[in-house]
Here is the input.
Amino acid sequence: MNHVLAALRDAPHVSVSSVKSYLLCPQRHFFRYHSRVEPSHRSVALIMGKSVHDSLEAFYKYHQERKEDPVAELLLDTFSASWRRGMLGDPPVLSEDVGRDKDVGVGLVQTFYEQAPRPKEVLGVEDAFALNLEGDPQGRLIVGAIDAVVVDQNDRVVVVESKTAKRRWPAVQLAHDFQVAVYQQAVRTMDIAQNPVLRFDFLLKLKTPVVESAVVHRTVQQEEEALLIFKQVLRAVDAGIHYPVRGWACTNCEYAHACG
Here is the structure.
């Protein structure tokens, strides 16, 4: 457990994931964060994503402490333990084939171990941060944690954000996703680096899994735009503005039973 992150979450705050949730569907955001409506199920994709994430965290922590790669079994054991925890409890996990879904996750972890860029040094793993959101009437902070901050083989400080995905991100999403703009500000605030390299590592759930890395850049203007998005979303949330967005996310939405 990230105790620093848990402590930061005790204060009024907002996160990248909650803002992205609102942008995807304000109605779903309302049900999840501001109502007593219980979800009908949990997504197996979230369980898989969390289990893969825990495996990668184990990899980077081992590397940070021992300056070398762990054996692959450490990552696979971490995945299995996290998967078992995730499958427990209520509401039930929605899956057409749990065994197949688990195999997909195992394949992603194995592919990461075989293909992911190796760091020269790991500076931080799941480092928690808090950024001021100037002008917010409730004094909320932007709170989160960065997957990993590493030094790569070219001696550059790199912010690593790992994603599991079914398909490659389009160029426009890579160019404008605001998560790494927030992380860039956080790394600078924590005095880790003034101008870090920003890298997405995508673990793609293709027929043959693959790891693809994409280095992106964020300007000062994009940092300011990211903060503006947070402020505007919070203004809408505070005003009680929520409405359904009909689209692909409706298919397996855990609040479909309450929507409409």
Q: What stands out?
A: The mean pLDDT is 97. The chain is about 45% helix and 20% strand. Residues 43 and 251 are 11 Å apart (CA to CA).
